[in-house]
């Protein structure tokens, strides 16, 4: 059962990053530029971010296995549609449907694992595996995508999902028991609509702003739409007995800085992946396989440090892992500020290793910081919000990086990308704020009963 649920998590994470390395090939195949390609990635992440919390409510009401199976089915069909896409618009729409399916996999699979393993120690070990799979999936996407694009073309990054989904559906039917929440949660449809509108409008302005002009009437209308939908969301949520998001949590500095840190980590990761894709393939002329292989140190660092971080949080609290995450993330960004055709391979690999280590160390302590001091009834909500924040960070990172390199000649990519690498370093510094706000480690006797298990359980969501 754990293997089946972890497999779904791997699918969701890989599809967040696997397309990045194939974007130049997608552009050549469909005849579109960088700005259009940003929507191929962000249509997936925006929808995924918008629906994560609602998917959890649906699973509690109608059954986790049922919703999980529906998510797998939607994800698989949408993957086939992506592979057959005849145009950019069709591909973007299919990617959005993929995001709908993915939103029913990640939080629901975690709830299945937690519900089926009542023993705290067994559950903690299972969530440790979950953490390693999560870190590996996000960082391994470019490597996997590069190999597939090189061997079979860009459509293969979507074809590969189909057999995996079929196997997962069979295994779910055999091994995964049905379960439901202790009480039904009401669906907050107005809040869901407003938060989706706010996210889509924000990403649209970031992607299209350089093309239409930041002060153009269309851009100003976009700003107004973002502000109105965000204000409407806050007003609606404050008046509902069971809101989509508990906005009262943001009054806690510890929680707010942790959510900011979660956004920062995924902004840094996705800015790094997209800038590297275009600089290595367009400025240096590397193949997709070579560009993807160059990120192997990132995958290695994330895979090793994700479970290690959970262990450190259990023994020492979240502060030290967050300091390590911020240090390595900032160092990785600074190493690549002048990335160009003449940058040596050792520096490039060292920078990717630093970024992978920073990413691996960040996830568990960030959510530990978010849920620190909260009662159990609110910890799940906090974990869901931090998961949403990660996907928002991914969407914003793609939009910002794409805006920097869109319509830029290969010879000018070094200068165009420099603000992006400085942004990656700044995201590392944001983690120091989360570290400063985090609670110090509790005595060892309390860590076994609460911190250690609670951190791994929620932190990897």
From TrEMBL:
It is a multi-pass membrane protein. Keywords: Antibiotic resistance, Cell membrane, Membrane, Transmembrane, Transmembrane helix, Transport. The chain crosses the membrane at residues 40-59, 66-90, 96-117, 129-152, 158-177, 189-207, 213-234, 254-277, 289-310, 322-341, 347-371, 421-438. Its main location: membrane. Pfam families: MFS_1 (PF07690). Residues 1-443 form the Major facilitator superfamily (MFS) profile domain. It is found in: Cell membrane. Belongs to the major facilitator superfamily. EmrB family. This is DHA2 family efflux MFS transporter permease subunit. It comes from Streptomyces bambusae. The lineage of its organism: Bacteria, Bacillati, Actinomycetota, Actinomycetes, Kitasatosporales.
